[in-house]
Amino acid sequence: MNSSLQQQSMLDDKPAVEVSDLTVAYHSRPVLWDVDLTVPRGVLMAIVGPNGAGKTTLLKSILGLVPVAAGQVLIFGKPLAQQRHLVSYVPQRGSVDWDFPTTALDVVIMGLYRQLGWIRRPGSRERRKAMEALEQVGMSSFARRQISQLSGGQQQRVFLARALVQNAQLFFMDEPFQGVDATTERAIIEILRQLRSEGKTVVVVHHDLQTVPEYFDWVTLINVRRIACGPVCQVFNEKNLRAAYGGRVAFIVEQQTEGC
Question: Using the 8-state DSSP alphabet, how is residue 84 labeled?
Answer without folding.
Answer: G
